[in-house]
Amino acid sequence: MSNGGRSISVLNVAEKPSVAKSVATILSRNQGMRIREGRSRYNKIFEFNYSIRGQPCRMLVTSVTGHVMELDFDDRYRKWHSCDPAALFEAPVRKIVPQDKLDIKRTLEEESRRCQWLVLWLDCDREGENIAFEVIDICTAVNQRLTIKRARFSALIEREIHESVQNLVEPNQWFAHAVDARQEIDLRIGASFTRFQTMLLRDAFVIDSVGDDRNLVLSYGPCQFPTLGFVVERYWEVQSHEPEEFWTINCNHRSEEGLATFNWMRGHLFDYTCAIIIYEMCIQEPSATVTKVRQQEKYKYPPHPLNTIELEKRASRYFRMSSEHTMKVAEELYQAGFISYPRTETDSFSARTNLQAIVQEQLEHPVWGSYAQQLLDPGSGLWRNPSNGGHDDKAHPPIHPTKFSPGENNWSQDHHFVPTTLTLDSGVTRPPPLLSEADLLSCMDKAGIGTDATMHDHIKKLLDRFYVTKDQNTRFSPTNLGEALVMGYDDMGYKLWKPNLRSMMEFDMKAVSEGSKSKTEVLQTCLQQMKACFIDARLNKEKLFEAMSVFFDRSNRSVREDQHGTGEVVCLCQLCNQSNMVLKQSRDGNFMVSCLGYPLCRNVVWLPGSVSEAAITSSVCNSCTPRPIHMIQFKFRRSEIPPNYNVDHLGCIGGCDDILRQLTEICGTGSRMPARGRGSTQSQSTAQTISRQQMCTNCRQTGHSLGDCPSVVSAASHSRTRRRSTHDGEASVPCSRCGASCTVRTANTANNRGRKFYSCQAQGCNFFVWADSLDSGTGGGGRRDSNGVSSRGRGRGSRGSTFVSPKIDTRTQSMNTKTRFLEEQWKIKKQFQLVLSRVFPGRTLESILGDGGRREWSSSTADKAVPSLQNRTWDDDLA
DNA sequence: GCAAGGTC
């Protein structure tokens, strides 16, 4: 180690300026330290003398600012149209120093030229180790004789830093390799999919909700997409929720000692008949004996020490600050020395931390100073050491105040941390709330999406890309664009929007960092799989088109070339009287007759979805005017039309063709919407409407009404709301249960899709009523009983034994995910039915309640028979 | 014009 007492020059490099300063201050003991400028204005150079294991050293301590290098493709692959995006899975990549890091690079080169040793003080995590190798590459390129050492430290405290520099180790190549692999995979997947979906979709649709869509980038990233997935999935859950009425039996007993409230152990029942029978039994035998009093003590534990994610969650929950803004404010407070480093996973204080000293600092504060005093008073018994959250990034302590301040003049309100509490309660049959920012951060944290320093960036990216919106309550909803992209990939069967891909990658990265897998092996396997996925996604691009078509109009920038066929003329457009109507087949194979004046004229006649072939003939319809209207020779798919219809049919779109109208009604049109009104009753009434030649008020075509109009369905800006309901969300009637306001909504479940219901918006009130039970008959309230419960709702009491499997419309692939949610709900109900059938084999619920065992029927009977039913509620079954 | 990860 010693070279005969001659001093050597040691270049020490930290990950950030603050660490360089701390290390230099500790090692120099703040004596004889000289500070000079480097090439980069932020990265100073600290110089002082020190001795490492008896070797006199001239120490130079400087820093970088995170990564010095970036991974990118070779120049010839950088332009978007330079290559097939699939080629990006193999295109050569290299690490380069970006323009804004060149100053730091020059400092490192200049200083390392005159040094004998290089000591790396980068953060002790995988990224830090990777940055260490970037520094090594830059320094050894100009000085190959450098001796390279790594300082390992877990906190910027004196003993730790001195121990570290006296026990230097080798840098960990495995850690660095894991990051290399992560960078390369992220770049190749991100760039290929982003270029692919941007170039495929941006010009094909009018994405008018984002302003100028010509510059839109439809990015894909292994972190941003799963984050989007969380938002969309919750949104679908909310949408697919179908409220169910339930009944509870509430019991109070007032005596001289006061009022006692008894809660039903079962909580509630969804079956009205069952509930009313039990209720009647209670009425008949109203006296009861208290057999057991169970007292339960509940503990509420104080939170773990604060790490970055918890800081962001709490700032969002209590202050409604976005995670991105929180990190900005925290960074400012850190820079000003008021709080410790804000980017940390650590949620446990080391045993060496003097917590009392931290509290001591706060004694002067006008608001919480007295509380700090009480904490420190041994007589109060209030002091307890914070719990250990179990995480330690070995680089930073939990976030805590480092300096007292009663508040600074230049602080905005955002810089004050004022504690409040907030609780959120929801009813059983209410849909879950949309994801809040805190929820989203939790989802990401749980699934390992992003790091504590980047999670807020991913959320912001979703907002910047117009994939999600955030409401006033910091709750996220997907935009049409965000939902369409997730739907498209989901329909392909690829879970690119799920967190699994990132989790698998993270698993592999861990293997590389532990040396159990090589970087090359992981890169090869992962990229091979992802390329296969990319190729397959490209083959299935129709799924993306279909999903986008649900929400957006086709753009005239590419619509003409996208449609197959030359577009043979059927007739003159009766709407604009200027252009011809031509027969076309859309990308998804459905036939239509549309006006060539598009987009100025949007007249379109969608033909039945069961048409497999259609060709214009020279024959002209004799009855329809204005002539000529050419007849079309159709071929229908046998399996999609009723047996009494022929597969071959010479038809007319002018309004005279009953068969064509009937098949349009039976099979639906070729649009992405599920065909409505397939039931016999509705078919009849619609058929009558058509025979009177009524037209859709939107596109003025026969064969459908406004509600089913394909033009409305695909209309860009309004598609989402119209698809659900034209009136969803409007405050409409006062709640007959609590007096608050009920809004009208539309059920989206298999059994009741499209059916309107009123739902109370008041927290804790679960009242709902089907709109049609109010609209028909005697009008509002006519079919409701004195409790405001719809009689139709009661009728559904039999649902416990008459489950109907949801019908899946195979033509609406884009809706598959939503359908799956419904299926899941149905399965859960089915399981509950199974449990009951095990308790009372071979008997219906009615027969159980109606026989001589009626008196014995109670929740406790079932509980005894099936132990798993003990204390079990519908909530448990849903869980 | 693309990813995610550092940090100013």
From TrEMBL:
Occurrences of domain CCHC-type (ranges): 696-711
Any one Gene Ontology cellular component term annotated for this protein: RecQ family helicase-topoisomerase III complex
UniProt keywords, alphabetically: DNA-binding, Isomerase, Metal-binding, Topoisomerase, Zinc, Zinc-finger
Domain GRF-type: 735-774
Protein function: Introduces a single-strand break via transesterification at a target site in duplex DNA. Releases the supercoiling and torsional tension of DNA introduced during the DNA replication and transcription by transiently cleaving and rejoining one strand of the DNA duplex. The scissile phosphodiester is attacked by the catalytic tyrosine of the enzyme, resulting in the formation of a DNA-(5'-phosphotyrosyl)-enzyme intermediate and the expulsion of a 3'-OH DNA strand.
Family: Belongs to the type IA topoisomerase family.
Protein name (record): DNA topoisomerase
Organism: Trapa incisa
